[in-house]
Amino acid sequence: MSDPRLPAAFLQPGISSFSDFLAEQAPDLLPARRAVPQGHAGDLAPHGTTIVAATYPGGVVMAGDRRATMGNIIAQRDIEKVFPADEFSAVGIAGSAGIAVEMVRLFQTELEHYEKIEGTTLSMDGKANRLAALIRSNLGLAMQGLAVVPLFAGFDLTVDQGRIFSYDVTGGRYEETAFHSVGSGSLFARGALKKLYRADLDRTGCVTAVIQALYDAADDDSATGGPDLTRRIFPVVQVITADGGRRLPDAEVAAIADQVIAGRMTRPDGPAAPLTEGDAR
Description:
CATH class: Alpha Beta
Oligomer: single chain
């Protein structure tokens, strides 16, 4: 017997894409379908800034600072920008914070919906493609200054390694090697990781490297928030391995951040990188 409270479309076997289903049945609920007045709206909404990700043997780490800005104002000091997408992947947001968070929630529902309909999880490439489609649908708002440019990372069980994907505002998808960063402080974060990253880092070493990169980004980019010692606000760090993903406890992140800051007291520009491969060994 059908449920009179629900339309027939909700009670029939449907397509595996939740966003496509929503576009057919209730398109006004999609973030990209919202009506926005003409003009540039980028300075009217809080923006998330710097996200970094790096792989290591057996996993991948993603971290984000906690600052959101609105023009030259700090809109929020403890925003969270890194979210689990599913058991084996995570997404970090840069751009218009409100739309980005809605897009993340839609992406999470998209992956869960696919698993329930198909009885299996999407591949890493499939997940990356679905996120690209959501970004592409937001192009109209992006042209008005409400862009969302996330970073996606996860552990691919088929190849037994971490993978990282970046995007542009048109939904272009690009797989990155070893590490990557997005957001206003990304230039400085990537520069730091170029010197600090090694392919043989362990989990703790990889987490330390990305926190060092976020510190360097905050040092040169006013929109990126560094560790807040007074309020004890530290980056959100997600670690994903073959056993699944988990957010590192704040106490563990704080301990690593405290070590990084202690080192900066004697060397403000951070640890020196070796000049040659021989020195690295």
